[in-house]
Amino acid sequence: MHGYLTTAFNIFVCQSLREGGIPFAIKTERPNKETIAAMLEAERIAKDQSVKGYTDLDELFAGLKK
């Protein structure tokens, strides 16, 4: 395993020197409007005291059967 890491590091360094920088784009993906809306809804639901919460899957499935 150690040999693979050394090889990967050497490849990375050589490519970085050739390109004059990191050889791949460093970026963060931005969620679309639908994903942002879902995240906000999930946050709202999580804070809503009137929404039933579950501590494990068995409790959740029992609640779904009701």
Automatic annotation (TrEMBL):
One Pfam family cited in the UniProt record for this chain: RelB
Gene3D superfamilies in alphabetical order: Met repressor-like
A GO BP annotation: regulation of DNA-templated transcription
Identification of the protein by name: Type II toxin-antitoxin system antitoxin, RelB/DinJ family
Organism: Eisenbergiella massiliensis
Lineage per the UniProt record: Bacteria, Bacillati, Bacillota, Clostridia, Lachnospirales
